[in-house]
Design a protein that fits this description.
about 120 residues; mainly alpha; 2 helices; about 60% helix
Length: about 120
């Protein structure tokens, strides 16, 4: 997500050491860990409340499907992978022409001034 390389993490650690000092840095790290655990607990509680509120009709509902990236991977890219993996390697495949308004690979979408 943030693309933190080992060098970037090292620079952040040195900056934190300079800003907080060697005595306060372990305390700050412990507070950050506690805060992350608390956030995860709250998120898990919210998921449980949502599942309870939806009722038994949605028992198989996966909350992670609400993540836009996961939604695209599951519903759009799985169709593409199924089409690509489903063809026989000995046969030549004919690609269908792009749909009207579809972008070609590498093509930038048009900018709409009225939408922003």
């Amino acid at each position: 997500m943030f693309d933190l390389s080992p060098w970037k993490l090292l620079v952040l650690a040195v900056i934190a050491l300079v800003v907080f000092g060697p005595n306060e840095l372990p305390k700050m790290a412990a507070k950050a860990g506690t805060a992350l655990r608390e956030l995860r607990r709250i998120a898990d509680g919210a998921k449980a409340d949502l599942r309870e509120g939806l009722g038994p009709e949605f028992a198989d509902f996966d909350i992670d499907d609400l993540n836009p990236r996961r939604f695209v991977q599951k519903h759009l890219l799985s169709d593409l992978n199924g089409e690509m993996n489903g063809h026989n390697g000995s046969e030549a495949t004919v690609s269908s022409p792009p749909k009207a308004g579809a972008l070609l690979p590498g093509e930038e979408p048009p900018f709409d001034n009225e939408a922003t």
